[in-house]
Amino acid sequence: MLLRYKKAYEKIAMGLLSYMPGEKSVKKLQETIHLYETEEDWQLYLLKQDEDFIGLAGIILEADSYTVMHLSVNPSFRGEGIGSKIIEKLGDLFPDLECKSTEDTESFMKKCRQKEETQEDE
Ligand SMILES: CC(C)(COP(=O)(O)OP(=O)(O)OC[C@H]1O[C@@H](n2cnc3c(N)ncnc32)[C@H](O)[C@@H]1OP(=O)(O)O)[C@@H](O)C(=O)NCCC(=O)NCCS
Fold first, then answer.
1. Probe ligand 1: pick from 53, 111, 118, max atoms within 8 Å of CB?
2. CATH for 2-121, among 3.40.50.2300, 3.10.450.50, 3.40.630.30, 3.40.30.10?
């Protein structure tokens, strides 16, 4: 289940965000969380599985697209398709918008697109 960020999730969100390259210092993490808390077009989502928050995605929403700025999965759950599932769920939330990536998220997103194309071909 993909849940929209709220203040009660701050610590778990910062923990997950800290796996992103460029989000290593507490100061940078606080600045990033602040953007998601205050800017309307910055939206943060957490993936909850059973009782645990195991992944996170942060996007900037625009009129006809959204850009995946942050994406991270708890290391204990990696390699199980959770990262691709989060990208898929974002697509379900915003079916009419184009999905864009940043330098940080591009290579994984490209991998997700390739996986989708392979599945469609089967
Ligand atoms: C990137 C990340 C979200 C993937 O989550 P995940 O749940 O393990 O992803 P999935 O299980 O859906 O996919 C795993 C596949 O993606 C590949 N992969 C992982 N990180 C990748 C990256 N940065 N670029 C390209 N492929 C990547 C894995 O090698 C694996 O490949 P395989 O299926 O051929 O074995 C996770 O590794 C993570 O949190 N990394 C730290 C945060 C980070 O660096 N984010 C920026 C990149 S989005």
1. 111
2. 3.40.630.30
